[in-house]
Design a protein that fits this description.
By secondary structure, this protein is α/β, with parallel strands linked by helices. It has nine helices and twelve strands. A hairpin with a 5-residue loop joins strand 11 and strand 12.
């Protein structure tokens, strides 16, 4: 590995989530950057893939996971996400991994891998819902995550156990008090990143909190800038990203997904905008 690149033989891409034609149609693009691709699916895993179509490009592994039949907290599918990602990471042998969602695609990972190479011990993401520290603390994106394979495996194992050990939580949000963070409701993005910080040795009580137990936003900003890096959507070629679950007139989920562009990303939530650089954290 040179200073600014990652050799494709040292990178694995884990495609996580129910099998989807969007990521399958993008396999040729992903193989330009990694010699191994692992599809770690759950739920819908019945899309047939002819591996012979890719044997001259690299190794394609399909894991058809059966979710454990145990009660657990699964707010916003955080448990399913951590479980299937960890299953994929468990068979990774390369030094670096990029995790992507199965219902999305990105055609160009050049910039993303360059940022990973310059910051090999960081949590590299794109900027989909990467929030400012004073708006939503500890909230990088979870749509694309890249980094050291061992560190990612540790983080997702920690997150999976958090969900399994806190099955009594109501609603969709993980209670931050379970991590000593008062007055914080945590999305999966925050649970995953906090799990990464903790497994990297960060002591949240002494490094993120004030003496009175409140969150120190300046410290949160410092930790986020130190341990996370961002690549914008505009730097990832052509893309398709999921922005929301479609709902009917009564607010009930329809089972369909909305896909959005960068205009929507930067204007849909003016109170909590997605950042465009780490300077905005």
């Amino acid at each position: 590995m040179s200073h600014h690149t990652i050799n494709k033989d040292d990178l694995t891409i884990v495609i996580q989530g129910p099998a989807h034609i969007h990521s399958i149609n993008n396999l040729n693009n992903y193989f330009k950057f990694a010699s191994k691709i692992i599809m770690s699916c759950y739920g819908t895993c019945d899309i047939e893939i002819d591996k012979n179509n890719y044997k001259d490009k690299g190794s394609l592994i399909v894991l058809k996971n059966t979710l454990p039949q145990i009660p657990c907290f699964n707010g916003l599918s955080g448990y399913y996400h951590s479980f299937s990602t960890l299953q994929g990471l468990s068979v990774v042998s390369s030094s670096f991994t990029i995790k992507v969602r199965s219902d999305e695609y990105y055609s160009d990972l050049t910039k993303f891998t360059e940022v990973m190479a310059r910051n090999p011990n960081c949590w590299t993401t794109n900027n989909i819902f990467f929030k400012r520290a004073d708006k939503e603390p500890f909230h990088p994106s979870d749509h694309v995550i890249g980094g050291n394979s061992f560190a990612l495996r540790q983080a997702f194992a920690y997150a999976k156990k958090l969900y399994e050990d806190n099955l009594d939580l109501p609603g969709q949000w993980f209670d931050g008090r379970r991590l000593g963070l008062t007055n914080l409701s945590l999305s999966p993005e925050a649970v995953f990143f906090l799990s990464f910080l903790i497994t990297q040795g960060v002591n949240l009580k002494t490094e993120a909190m004030n003496l009175d137990g409140t969150l120190n936003i300046n410290n949160v900003r410092y930790l986020t800038k130190k341990y996370a890096k961002v690549v914008t959507l505009e730097e990832m070629g052509s893309f398709l990203f999921a922005c929301a679950n479609a709902r009917d007139n009564e607010g009930k989920g329809t089972g369909h997904t909305h896909y959005c562009d960068t205009t929507w990303l930067y204007t849909s939530s003016p109170e909590t905008p997605s950042i465009k650089s780490m300077d905005e954290v």
